[in-house]
Each structure stands twice: as structure tokens, then as C-alpha cells.
Specification:
- This protein is an alpha/beta fold.
- Helix content is 44%, strand content 18%.
- Helix 2 packs across helix 4, helix 4 packs across helix 5 and helix 4 crosses helix 9.
- The protein is globular, with a radius of gyration of 19 Å.
- The N and C termini lie far apart (52 Å).
Length: 392
């Protein structure tokens, strides 16, 4: 297994964690080869989480935009409402196999915290979730969900009291308690082997999508489009087509209030620079002294100052293109998909749709686009109705 993607990735961590990550790597490689592990994982993915998810031809949307045929990979239909459960099921089964009886996780908006708490309840492990104090105030419903699921939510008071500080705390806890604890990282980031582990567990998205498009269209798609926070739903979809050079991969970052305002989370659209965050060399939004900048996005899931290292590699080698759309473009796409297809997407996924609204018009007739609908919008409905001043 690769420890780096080109120069990106690596293990820039306290030496306390080195043997821990080496153990994790060994256990992961063993699980990958174990029939028993694979069978158990596939069983849970199918009977518990609801895989395979459909690849849906969005005929109304395609007609509306003309030309391209748009397919939606429906990760929003999974249990807990997003792709995150693919990764938590994989990692927590792995934790059990390693003999751990406790998992920890970080969470920003609460989605990964909820998926981890859900899976820990299912598999009978203790669960502590680190969450910035500010995020806890903004996401009270998800805090309560995690408590209902039997998890303990630990407020993080350091730094900006948001996601990056929660990851720091989780890494610290992991270094101290690794003998009985596994740290379930929520996206394709962090020190090696995490980006590769998360990619592996999310690659089920791309594997299914490839089989499905070959059955439904008899050929490969021209384009893949997915939103990029840390980058796990995108890398999961991309992985199925990575070796098919004719398939163009497009990652959509959060343009926030517009790149020029500085209020965004666009690390790969010429705004970020090479740097190290959370154990990995990648593109980071930082100042000249390496201090991490504050980011902004309307969708909490895309609001992270670094990007998974493999995306940095795809960016540098031009294997994938990265673009950004603004908060208001994402909001428009959120409404448009709801009205034309009856599918309310997560605000994160609405970023991918927003780019497709612009891009599909430039495509040739019958070119095929697969868009990853990483999650459903139920979690965002209250926020958007408040934002738009709608009386409910
Ligand atoms: C967390 C989340 C994201 C962003 O995370 P990635 O690791 O970039 O996929 C995107 N969409 C939804 C619905 C999420 O919950």
C-alpha cells in the first residue's frame, strides 16, 4: 500500500502514534484479505445500511438542461442519510477485529458523529465523539441524536472550537488510549494509513456506479462530479474509474461567499498552499506563517481548511479538475433538484449539482455525467427555512 500520493500524504505525527498507525495498517491489510471480514462488511452494507444504492437517471433534470444525460448516485438513501456509514461500518468492524472496545470520532456538523454513534451501537462498542463547542451550539439536534444512540459527546474548547480542533483532540486521545481505542476518522484525510483506509471503504460507491452505468448505458460515463470536503465521497466515486483515463473527474469545493471575499473553503482553486495539517502533507488554507485560516461555507460538511492528500495529488497531476461554487449557487441547486426530481439533497451535494447546472450546457449531446448525491437534505431543511425567512 502507498504511504504517499506523489509527495502528498505521509505521517507527520507525534512519534507516540507511529506504532499505533503501524498496527492499524497491519490489521487493515489483513482484513482486506480476509473472506470472513469482507462477508461481514458486505452483509451489514446490504441488510443494515441499504446497499446497493440506485444509480438514477435524472430525466427531468437532463431534459431541462438539454444535451447531457445526468445520473445521480443515490448515497442519500443510505441509513443515517449519507455515505458516511460506508466508512464507519468498515472501520468499526476493523476496530472489533483488533480487539478494541471503544471508538472515538471527531465531528463538525455532526453527520460523522451520528454515523459513528449508530455503528458503535450496532456493534456494541463504547463511543466518545469530540465536537467543537461552537459546533455543538450550532448542531444541537445531531448532539441529541448521538446521545440517543448511547454516545458521549465531548465539547472541545480550544482554538476556533470547530472541526479542526476536534480532530486535534481526537488524535491526542488516540495517542493516549490506543490500547483499547480506535479512532474513526470521518474523511479521506489524516496520517497514513487513514486516507487509504477511508478510500477503500468508500470505494464501494465507485464500484457499484461502474457496474450500474455499464448495465444501464452500456458504456463508461464522460464525467464524474462530486463535492469535496475532506474528499471521501468524491474519492469513493472516483476510485471506480481512476484507471479509465477517458473519464474526467471533477471535484467541487465550497466557494462560500465568493473566492474574492476570502470567505470560502476552496483549497485547490489556487487559494491553498502546500502545508501540513492533521498528519498529512496536502493543500491547506493558511497564512504565510502556516497558521490555519478560518474557512466559510453554507454547508458544514465542506467547511474544512485542508483537503485529503490524494485530491492534492490528482490536482497536481491533472487527473481530476477542481472547481468551486458559491453558497448562493448551491442554494439555488438545492431548490432546483427538489422541484425537478423530488429529491432534496444535502447542501454539500447541492454544490455538485450546482456545478452540473452550469457544466451540462457545455456538454455534447448524450454525454454522460454521474453526480454523487452524498447525502439527503433533511438535516438542512430547518436551517434553510430560517435563512430564507420562510414561515413553517
Ligand atoms: C460529510 C459530508 C460531506 C463531506 O465529506 P467528504 O469526506 O468530502 O465526502 C459531503 N456530503 C455529505 C452529505 C456529508 O455528510
Amino acid at each position: 500500500m502507498k504511504t504517499r500520493f506523489g509527495e502528498f500524504g505521509g505521517r507527520y505525527i507525534s512519534e507516540l502514534l507511529l506504532p499505533v498507525l503501524e498496527d492499524l495498517e497491519k490489521a487493515f491489510l489483513k482484513a482486506k484479505k480476509s473472506k470472513k471480514f469482507q462477508n461481514k462488511l458486505n452483509e451489514y452494507l446490504h441488510f443494515y445500511a441499504g446497499r446497493p444504492t440506485p444509480l438514477y437517471f435524472a430525466e427531468n433534470l437532463s431534459k431541462k438542461l438539454g444535451k447531457a444525460k445526468i445520473y445521480l448516485k443515490r448515497e442519500d438513501l443510505l441509513h443515517t442519510g449519507a455515505h458516511k456509514i460506508n466508512n464507519t461500518l468498515g472501520q468499526i468492524l476493523l476496530a472489533k477485529q483488533m480487539g478494541k472496545d471503544r471508538v472515538i470520532a471527531e465531528t463538525g456538523a455532526g453527520q460523522h458523529g451520528v454515523a459513528t454513534a449508530t455503528t458503535a451501537a450496532l456493534l456494541g462498542l463504547k463511543c466518545d465523539v469530540f465536537m467543537g463547542k461552537k459546533d455543538m451550539e450550532r448542531q444541537q439536534l445531531n448532539v441529541y441524536r448521538m446521545k440517543l444512540l448511547g454516545a458521549n459527546v465531548i465539547p472541545v474548547n480550544t482554538g476556533s472550537q470547530t472541526l479542526k480542533d476536534a480532530i486535534n483532540e481526537a488524535l491526542r486521545d488516540y495517542a493516549t488510549n490506543y490500547s483499547n481505542t480506535h479512532y474513526v476518522i470521518g474523511s479521506a484525510l489524516g496520517p497514513y494509513p487513514y486516507p487509504s483506509i477511508v478510500k477503500y471503504f468508500q470505494s464501494v460507491i465507485g464500484k457499484e456506479a461502474k457496474q450500474q452505468i455499464l448495465i444501464q448505458e452500456g458504456k463508461l460515463p464522460n464525467y464524474l462530479v462530486a463535492c469535496v470536503g475532506g474528499g471521501s465521497n468524491a474519492i469513493g466515486l472516483f476510485s471506480g474509474f481512476e484507471k479509465n483515463k477517458q473519464v474526467q473527474m471533477i471535484g467541487v469545493e465550497a466557494g462560500g461567499k465568493g473566492i474574492r471575499t476570502g470567505l470560502h473553503a476552496s483549497r485547490l482553486t489556487k487559494q491553498g498552499t502546500k502545508g501540513i495539517l492533521h498528519g498529512s502533507l496536502t493543500y491547506v488554507l493558511q497564512n504565510q506563517f502556516g497558521q490555519i485560516k478560518e474557512t466559510h461555507s453554507i454547508s458544514a460538511g465542506l467547511d474544512y481548511p485542508a483537503v485529503g492528500p490524494e485530491h492534492a495529488f490528482f490536482y497536481e497531476t491533472n487527473r481530476a479538475q477542481y472547481v468551486s461554487v458559491t453558497d448562493s449557487e448551491a442554494l439555488q441547486a438545492f431548490h432546483l433538484l427538489s422541484e425537478t426530481e423530488g429529491i432534496i439533497p444535502a447542501l454539500e451535494s447541492a454544490h455538485a449539482i450546482a456545478y452540473v447546472l452550469k457544466f451540462a450546457k457545455k456538454c455534447a449531446k448524450n454525454e454522460i455525467i454521474i453526480v454523487n448525491i452524498s447525502g439527503r437534505g433533511d438535516k438542512d431543511v430547518q436551517f434553510i427555512s430560517d435563512l430564507e425567512g420562510v414561515q413553517v
